[in-house]
Amino acid sequence: MSNVPAQFLLRPGIGYKYPGWKHHNQHIPPMQMQNTGQSGHLFWVFKESTTGMAVSVRGLYFVVTLFLGSFFGSIFMLGPVLPLMLLSPAWYRWITDRIVATWLTLPVALLELVFGVKVVITGDGFVPGERSVIIMNHRTRLDWMFLWCCLLRYSYLRLEKICLKAALKAVPGFGWAMQVACFIFIKRRWEEDRSHMENMLDYFCDIKEPLQLLLFPEGTDLTEYTRARSDEFAEKNGLPKFEYVLHPRTTGFTFIVDTLRKGDNLDAVHDITVAYPKNIPQTERHLILGQFPREIHFHVRRYEASDLPTSPSELQAWTQERWAEKEVRLRDFYASEPRGFDREGVCRVPPCKTELRVALIKAASLFYWSFFIALSFAGLWLWAPLRLYFLGMMGIYFGQQKLIGGLELLELACHRYWMSVTGDGKKKVVDGKGKKE
């Protein structure tokens, strides 16, 4: 690296290609470079800040379509269902999960039909409809969205919930839909998060709605900065340093597994390893620039809940073992040619949907949401009552966020109320929190 011209070194600005490294790529950390996949020569490009780079029409189309779909969907599709929350939170959850799932198919349709992203899934697969916790390495800030390409084939998108940063719930459109979907928002302060997480998980156990909860134990995506922090943690605790993953934080995972077990709402844990063999869009800005992944590979390992360790310390050690396996698996993945987790490239458990059915779902989703967005604009332009309803719903979404803190919290409060009224519940509201008696 010392003989590399300065203009080719990693720095903010426009990426550069340097073919001289084509025979030494195995020594270069994966977060620093991306394979351009050009034939004839193996070029590498430093992944850098997008400062000064031109916005892509393709990227804008992707981001704007997703935003408008979530925004108008929250107003016109989810808005009319909100009053049902006050009368029957369980039925409200059943209906809204299916409405939100229709939007979750839109990114899959855009990625695969419009931008030609190839998805490869290997390993154990899923048992359709089972209740599980999904743990995955956090290679980019967009892994959670790319995972929908896998879940559309091997599971049901309506079952998925995500643990994610609380700040995201305030984003208009996306955040509103996440609140309605009852995602679990965390503040990364364990004392506060523990109480909220327990209330949310108990609610899912009470209403007996199947749940597949996505969790990133690493807590953040893989970058030079986060890997340096992970290395510091490894040195302090006598652990090996990782190059392709970060050391996992196990407190939240062990608590979730324990709570769902007690609520008889856990069938399995799915350990998913994600990798990008050709190019890696690290952040949302890369999508805006039109830098979509050419391929996304998922390797699934399924573990029966009954086979998991029972004590928190043993489950913590089990998680660390899975991450050590991921490190080896990813190292082998990036060293192989062609890159892949399984040379046969097949899942041992077949998907619950045929590729024909998946193709029809993607085509229907793209058509529906394109038509729905156009119809929403036309309705707002032509019909004054619809504009009043639109403004009223925006007021409700912004107002409840400020007064209550999120629709998922209102849903919990409604559930507690009806449990206390019917006498079926074992909880009462004490200082705003559910306490077991």
Automatic annotation (TrEMBL):
Q: Answer whether the UniProt record assigns the keyword Protein transport to this protein.
A: no
Please give the biological process terms from Gene Ontology that the record holds: phosphatidylinositol acyl-chain remodeling; phospholipid biosynthetic process
Q: Which domain of life is it from?
A: Eukaryota
- Where, by residue number, does the polypeptide cross the bilayer? 59-79, 99-121, 366-384
Task: Give one Pfam family.
Answer: Acyltransferase
Q: Which GO terms describe its molecular function?
A: acyltransferase activity
User: What is the designated name of this protein?
Assistant: Phospholipid/glycerol acyltransferase domain-containing protein
Q: Which gene encodes it?
A: LCLAT1
Residue stretches making up the Phospholipid/glycerol acyltransferase domain: 132-254
Offer a single GO CC term for the protein: endoplasmic reticulum
- UniProt record similarity statement: Belongs to the 1-acyl-sn-glycerol-3-phosphate acyltransferase family.
Q: Which UniProt keywords apply?
A: Acyltransferase, Lipid biosynthesis, Lipid metabolism, Membrane, Phospholipid biosynthesis, Phospholipid metabolism, Transferase, Transmembrane, Transmembrane helix
